[in-house]
Predict the structure of Cyanobacterial aminoacyl-tRNA synthetase CAAD domain-containing protein.
Amino acid sequence: MSSSDDTGVSDTSQQLDEFLNDIKAKYDALENKSQVGIYGGGALAVLWLSSAVIGAVNRLPLVLKVLELVGLFYTGWFVYRYLLFKSNKREL
């Protein structure tokens, strides 16, 4: 490894240490630590549930094609509405 690789690794390591120390300081400053666990568990439950719903919708062949058409129509509308004319570009 060259010295530039070593400095890149040490910079990344230093940034990671600073990030972890910042997170630890913020966690230590919290008054209600159990609330963090409740919110974290809730976030994981929502992530799992949304993954299950997306997987179920993905297995339905008709819904997949309808959603693809909706996406294409919306993309076309967005391009026409905001990107095609110069006056609308400023609005965006």
Q: What stands out?
A: The radius of gyration is 23 Å. The chain has four helices and no strands. The chain has a mean pLDDT of 86. Residues 12 and 18 are 10 Å apart (CA to CA).
